[in-house]
Structures are given as structure tokens and as C-alpha cells.
Amino acid sequence: MESDLLGLELILGVTGGIAAYKAVDLASKLTGAGAVVHCILTENACKLVAPKSFEAVTGREVFTSLWSAPQEYRIGHVTLADRAQMVVVAPATANLLAKAAMGLCDDLLSTTLCAGWEKPTIVAPAMNDRMWSNPAVQQNVETLRCRGWRMVGPAAGRLACGREGMGRMAEPAEILEAIRAIRAGS
Ligand SMILES: Cc1cc2nc3c(=O)[nH]c(=O)nc-3n(C[C@H](O)[C@H](O)[C@H](O)COP(=O)(O)O)c2cc1C
Fold first, then answer.
1. Which of 87, 106, 132, 143 lies 20 to 30 Å from 117 when distance is taken between CA atoms?
2. CATH code for residues 9-183
3. Which is the closest atom of ligand 1 to the Cα of 45?
């Protein structure tokens, strides 16, 4: 397996979208490529996919709460943000996009994103097509793009709700490509 991400330490934020299961594959591929992956799951992500799955594929502790910060760190969200060279959020819910655009900090992931605002950040939005086309969502995406966040996807296709449309999370391979491009400075 290619180990071209050796030396890369990143945060993988996972939110409560049905595509959260694909994030396990992304975490696995990143780890396989040599990256150190610190996963942060929101409370809603934990209802869709188990933290244990991420722990198993990364071989690392998975973070789910501001209040159970990692033992070795004094203040989890600040230390994680400091350590990581890059932040990836996949899938990113409409809720997360809104919170990040507003600078809201009401859980470990949103607080870490706020503390780590200067880090290169890749976001893979995923949601129902009507949610994606909501002007509020589009405005939040534009706000985040203007701040330098890189959006990967969403793609068109079959959605979990049974509809066809725009809103599928980008495939892990495409997100990996974006990570490699940022690392290469492009
Ligand atoms: C089964 C299920 C699937 C969901 N899928 C999505 C989704 O793909 N995208 C999205 O934006 N919200 C989705 N939601 C709604 C979010 O879970 C909800 O907005 C939640 O507040 C998001 O919290 P978080 O951003 O902190 O993870 C889903 C909810 C349920 C019950």
C-alpha cells in the first residue's frame, strides 16, 4: 500500500449524516497511507456509526465529547487543533456547515474547528438534495469557501432518502485526492 501520507497528522471530523459509514473507509485509507488520524465524532454521528469502528481502523482513541478530553492533553479541542496539520470533515451535515459559518462552538468538533480555523480544511458535505439547495445552506457553503475551506462534492446520484439528486458525499478516493493536493501545496 502507498505510504505517501507518512508524517501527516490530521483531524477527521464526522457528523450525523447517513454517509458517516463511508468515513470509516476514509479513516482506514488515510491510516493505510501512513497518516495519523484523530477522529472526532459528533453525538449524532455516534447514533449512525460506532466510535469503535474508527478506533479499530485508526488504532487510536476516538473523541466524542468536550468533557472527556484525551488524557494526555489538557484541553482537548485546542491541543488537537494545534497538533493537526489539516482538518477534514466528512460527512459534513447542513448543521455543521451552519455552525462553522457562524463560529458556533457547542460540541468538541465545532469548538475544534473554531480553534483550528487557520488550518487547511476540507469539507465533504452530504445531505438530502432539498437541504443542499436551501439558500441558507448555499450561503454557509459560500461563506466557508471564502474563508479558504475546500469543498469536495457533494455528488449527484441516489440519496439515502430514496430520491435522485445532488447531495451524496464524495467518495473517499476523491477526498484523499484533495488531501494529497493540499499536502503537495496545490
Ligand atoms: C437517519 C438520519 C440521517 C441523516 N442524514 C443526514 C444527512 O445526510 N445530512 C444532514 O445534513 N443531516 C442528516 N440528518 C440530520 C442530522 O443528523 C441533524 O441535523 C443533526 O442535528 C446533525 O448533527 P451534527 O451536525 O452535530 O452531527 C440525518 C438524520 C437522521 C435521523
1. 132
2. 3.40.50.1950
3. 27
